[in-house]
Amino acid sequence: MTLPPRLFAPRAWQMFRWLRDPLKFLDECVDRYGSHFLMNLVGLNMAIISDPKAIADLFALDPSQFTSGSSNSLLEPLVGSSSILLLDDRAHRRQRKLLLPPFHGERMTTYGKLICDLTRHQTATWQSGQVVGGRQLMQTITLKTILQAVFGLVAGDRYHRIQQLTTTILDLLGSPIGTLFLFNRSLQQDWGQWSPWGWFLAYRSQLDELLYAEITDRQAEQATGSGGDRTDILSLLLAARDEAGQPMTSAEIRDELITLLLAGHETTAISLSWALWWLTQNPEMVDRIRQEIATLGDRPDPVAITRLPYLNAFCQETLRIYPVAIALFPRSLTQPVTVGNQAYPSGVSLFGCTYLVHRRPELYPNPEQFRPERFLERSFTASEFMPFGGGSRSCIGMAFAQFEMKLVLATLVMDWDLGLGYAGLVPPVPARRGVTVGPSGPIRLRVTRRTPPAEV
After folding, report:
1. Phi and psi based region of residue 51 (left: phi greater than 0; alpha: psi -120 to 50; beta: remaining)
2. Percent over 90 (pLDDT), the chain
3. What are the tens digits of pLDDT across the range 173-219?
4. Which class for 62: exposed (0-12), middle (13-18), buried (19 or more C-beta within 10 A)?
5. DSSP H/E element including 297
6. pLDDT tens across 72-101, in order?
7. Phi and psi of 333, rounded to 5°?
8. For residue 416, how many other CB atoms are within 10 A of its CB?
9. Strand 331-333 and strand 66-67: pairing?
10. What is the mean pLDDT of the chain?
11. Cβ atoms of residues 434 and 75 within 8 Å
12. CB atoms within 10 A of CB 249
């Protein structure tokens, strides 16, 4: 069996480049080795694949041919062993069936007004001419959306403590030192207050205490019928039953909640931060989005907003040019397979590389150019545009994330003019933030109230 070319640089150097400058590293590798190449990271024999035809084959693999959850073990300290990200086979299928319904269909309509209201609430104190941090704004909006839509929390001490701890943990693990600890198990030593890992474990323990307390309170509400007609995702998970009629355990619910809490809001916040930057650079695109929204009348329905073609194309282009997750979760082969005419033996971990696929010039001419129109001119297959993964491991929150992204942006551009915070502001560049990649700076915006503000 002839394997693709392999990087022969020392593993420590490969890891350094992967953590320090992953996009430039990948660009150099694909230029030198092509659309299939091998490397060694986090203890895995990795095949990086950026050929869409091969990735289509990857998505079509039967789950019996690979494991994925076990290869995500570096996330276990963060999300727990019962998280859907770490499950395989029957356990993974069971959790997907239980988790998918709250993120699709009519359930989505109940979140539309919530997202618009939260966005307006966060901007209510702005003054025209004020300079604000766009990334912080987006982190706050998406976190509060998760807390209300997923947890059903609106106010109170537990709400504020969960919000503070989540932000602290993500900032800790998103720092260069925190990222190094996350990817290197040998550094994960609890030396108490004198070690970054000790800080993380202490914060995680405090967050766990709050999550289990909320789960216990909700279970008591459901048992007595005192909770009313709740529509939040936690209530739906507590009521869900698998094919055998069994509910999720408290530990399973905790792990899924923290997965949604830590991963779900941060990824959307990063994408929205990039979107804000592109809005400041392209005022003609802002005008086009506003004109499109205006066709819906004075009080457009949130669901109708999410179906607008140009707004959708703008969001898709944002997700394309700098995907938050630069590669798919690994498929670690349990038997030999062939993808894209390339054979791989058992034991190799296949990584579809989202970033490299999204930069293929034959798919996306002038791929460094931000150009939403490309998504109006043609459609792309699931292996050509894949910001949320694909196949049996696609992101369960994909519809919710896109729904939220469109409504936050639409609400902002209807109510505010957004410009650069300062003249000569240095453009943000992609930078590692834990397991994700996002803008290097805070995205400083100078905001001006439009008169009168639109309503949704």
Report:
1. beta
2. 67
3. 888 888 888 888 888 888 877 788 899 999 999 999 999 999 999 99
4. exposed
5. none
6. 888 899 899 999 999 998 889 888 888 887
7. -70, 135
8. 18
9. antiparallel
10. 91
11. no
12. 11
Angle between helix axes 196-224 and 157-174 (nearest 10 degrees) is 150
Tokens 């356990």 found at: 91
CA 455 vs. chain centroid, Å, equals 28
Tokens read off for 406:
């469109």
Tokens of residue 256, six digits: 């899924």
Question: CA 83, CA 254: separation in Å to the nearest integer?
Answer: 9
Tokens of 263: 């991963």
The token pair at 328 is: 């798919």
> Distance between CA atoms of 449 and 367, rounded to whole angstroms?
34
Q: Is the pLDDT of residue 454 over 70?
A: no
**φ, ψ (nearest 5 deg) of residue 14:** -60, -45
Residues in a beta bridge with 417? 448
Helix, strand, coil % over all residues of the chain, rounded to 5: 55, 10, 35
**Predicted TM-score (pTM) above 0.70:** yes
- The two beta strands, 342-344 and 130-133, are unpaired
Place of tokens 């108490």: 192
Instruction: Find the DSSP H helices in 175-240.
Output: 176-183, 196-224, 233-239
